[in-house]
């Protein structure tokens, strides 16, 4: 294993545990694992065709970031959060992502905004066609096209960590809830606000977009 990691380093590749960590984090962001799902070290290692050690390291790292919790028998689980805690996650996301959007609006290039508009169209089509898994992936790409444009990697990293925590819960509601036309067109409105460099409006629209999750889980908490 040490020799393999040395070769990866010489080729400029990230360590295997980092690659596995990124794959697992992505699977949480797009809701491949629902709340309270188990992730066995052995099962993940077999699925990825690797030894258990780098898988264990990746899972422990995600647990330290609160995206997973350790469980019995060498396994980890997606936390089963009550609706109020999920609502709090979306509230925090809305505020951070609104700030990132305000920072990004004057900085994004015309090419980045073109990409944003294409992704806005894709997410709308995904919802209309019912392909919700594609929506979750394109939704991530849409938002992080903006956040990486903010020029604040620390903020972007924190936001992505919150996405890993909230991803299973976003996927739960996106797959079953009806959506309004106004909500589906929010991405296009965000892209338009950024195009005209209206940072305040872009921030408000992103906060509205993410705040949808806050409202849904607030309602579940009250029911």
Order of helices and strands: HHEHHEEHHHHHHH
Strand order in the largest sheet: 1-3-2
Question: In percent, how much strand structure appears in the residues?
Answer: under 5%
C-alpha termini separation:
51 Å
**Mind telling me the CATH class of the largest domain?**
Mainly Alpha
Number of helices: 11
- Helicity level: over 70%
CATH architecture classification of the largest domain: Up-down Bundle
Structural category is: mainly alpha
| Total individual domains | 2
The residue ranges in which pLDDT falls below 50 over 5 or more consecutive positions are 1-10
**Mean pLDDT across every amino acid position:** 91
Apparent shape: globular
Largest sheet: 3 strands, antiparallel
Evaluate the radius of gyration. 18 Å
Classified in CATH, the superfamily of the largest domain is: GntR ligand-binding domain-like
Annotation, overall tally of beta strands: 3
């Amino acid at each position: 294993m040490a020799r393999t990691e040395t070769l990866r380093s010489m080729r400029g590749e990230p360590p295997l545990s980092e690659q596995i960590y990124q794959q697992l984090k992505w699977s949480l962001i797009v809701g491949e694992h629902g709340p309270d799902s188990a992730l066995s070290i052995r099962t993940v290692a077999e699925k990825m065709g690797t030894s258990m050690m780098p898988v264990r390291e990746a899972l422990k790292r995600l647990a330290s970031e609160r995206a997973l919790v350790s469980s019995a028998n060498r396994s980890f689980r997606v936390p089963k959060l009550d609706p109020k805690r999920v609502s709090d996650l979306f509230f925090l996301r809305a505020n951070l992502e609104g700030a990132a959007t305000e920072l990004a609006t004057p900085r994004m290039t015309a090419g980045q905004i073109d990409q944003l508009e294409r992704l806005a169209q894709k997410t709308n089509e995904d919802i209309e066609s019912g392909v919700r898994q594609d929506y979750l992936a394109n939704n991530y790409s849409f938002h992080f096209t903006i956040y990486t444009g903010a020029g604040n990697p620390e903020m972007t990293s924190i936001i992505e960590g919150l996405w890993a925590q909230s991803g299973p819960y976003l996927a739960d509601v996106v797959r079953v809830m009806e959506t309004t036309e106004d909500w589906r067109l929010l991405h296009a409105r965000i892209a338009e606000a950024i195009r005209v460099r209206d940072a305040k409006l872009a921030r408000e629209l992103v906060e509205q977009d993410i705040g949808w999750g806050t409202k849904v889980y607030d309602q579940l908490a009250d029911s």
